[in-house]
Amino acid sequence: MNYKPKKVLVVDDDPGIIKFIAKLLESWGYLAMEAKNGQEALEVLGAQNGHQDPVDLVILDVNMPVMNGFETIARMKESSNLRSIPVIFLTGQRDEEGLVKNMRIRGQSYIQKPFQAEILRSLVASLLTVYD
Prior knowledge:
- This protein is α/β, with parallel strands linked by helices.
- The protein has a single domain (11-130), classed as Response regulator (Rossmann fold, 3-Layer(aba) Sandwich), CATH 3.40.50.
- It contains 5 helices and 5 strands, in the order E-H-E-H-E-H-E-H-E-H.
- The protein has a 5-stranded parallel β-sheet.
- Helix 2 runs parallel beside helix 3 (69-78).
């Protein structure tokens, strides 16, 4: 049996954060893909439609230009091909009540910046196990 690494799309407007998370993911055995805003993420995800190896998980920044994370996940939920992809929101926001409300409605989990790598690793592993 041929093992294929899980694909994780990292979406953030900060290239440094994208590179940092991508490097972490790859060191943990995942294949990292990148997008700098929600619109670009939807383009990457749209290009995956009908392919045998779709994206398995999205790590999605909340505050971005062009299209923010909440708009992006709302668009994902409108697509039958994208709505089941688990999402981890990545945010610098400190409004816990607002974040929790949006997680219940739209996402599976969230992590606040700055974050500890092991917490991210744990979230990624657990969501990829649950949604496998």
